[in-house]
Amino acid sequence: MASAIEPGLPRREALRRAEAAIAASGVDAGPGDARFLLLHSLGIASADLVLAGDRPLSETDASALREALGRRLAGEPVARILGEWEFWSLPFRLSGETLVPRPDTETLVEAGLAALPSGRPARILDLGTGSGCILVALLSERPQALGVGLDRSPGALRTARENALRNGVGGRAAFVAGDWDAPLVGGFDLVVSNPPYIASTEIAGLSAEVRRHDPHAALDGGRDGLDAYRRIVAAGRLLAVGGAMALEVGADQAEVVEALGCAAGLEPTGPRHDLTGHARVVGFRAGGG
């Protein structure tokens, strides 16, 4: 129970009680959730917990940790409570209009970097940019690249702009309001996207944390989960000759998304698998490269 967190508790004991409360609650928690909440609530770093773990909680400390722990016990994801999350070893702020960046999506960044030779200028387009994590990660690795993030959510665009500035690439990133097939000027060397790919009928079966806290517009891929892909492959017209496209896909979608791209005139470059062995990213090239 969050009420077990009292003023005067040593930090280490507060952490132990928070861990016990989360374990007893039945929420699907990560092993470090209690530590994340304590560090965030107290405004300290991991080293402070190690070096000053016996320091007692103040009234303000205890109140902040109780509030954060109560939200976690109610099923709110820890990243939403913190208001930020790490991706590609970079910090990203979150908002209600953005998904929490997932480790699986780093496979998409890896695919994009493999398709973009380093040491030369490049133009990148991120369709459905959300928090901007994919575009910002790519720009952080390619200092001569420029990027455009497209999203239909004004709130997501504000968050993405903030994240680009926060991570030092704001001067090379533009964020534009629009849908998948917005009328952009072409010549992009790389188009990336992690679109909604969950079938509408499957949304109700997602975990409560996802259903209640993730924006449905970033999840719902239509009747068969492929609506966004049908429109995105048309963005092949925006690629420079030999330009690449990399799309994150859901389970068992790699082959059908590859077929959609081929039908749109793109040349498949094969899937890229994530650390669990699933085909996570489908790649294409524009003809002539």
From TrEMBL:
Reactions listed under catalytic activity: L-glutaminyl-[peptide chain release factor] + S-adenosyl-L-methionine = N(5)-methyl-L-glutaminyl-[peptide chain release factor] + S-adenosyl-L-homocysteine + H(+)
Domain Methyltransferase small residues, every copy: 115-202
Superkingdom of source: Bacteria
Alphabetical keyword list: Methyltransferase, S-adenosyl-L-methionine, Transferase
Binding-site residues for S-adenosyl-L-methionine, renumbered to this chain: G128, T129, G130, S131, G132, D151, W180, N194
CDD domains per record: AdoMet_MTases
Pfam families associated with the record: MTS, PrmC_N
UniProt domain Release factor glutamine methyltransferase N-terminal: residue ranges: 13-83
EC nos: 2.1.1.297
One Gene Ontology MF term: methyltransferase activity
Gene3D superfamilies: DNA helicase RuvA subunit, C-terminal domain, Vaccinia Virus protein VP39
GO biological process, one term: methylation
Signal sequence residues: none
Main enzyme class: transferase
Residues at which substrate binds: N194, P195, P196, Y197
SUPFAM superfamilies cross-referenced by the UniProt entry: S-adenosyl-L-methionine-dependent methyltransferases
Family: Belongs to the protein N5-glutamine methyltransferase family. PrmC subfamily.
Function, as annotated: Methylates the class 1 translation termination release factors RF1/PrfA and RF2/PrfB on the glutamine residue of the universally conserved GGQ motif.
Name of the protein in its database record: Release factor glutamine methyltransferase
Lineage, opening ranks: Bacteria, Pseudomonadati, Pseudomonadota, Alphaproteobacteria, Hyphomicrobiales
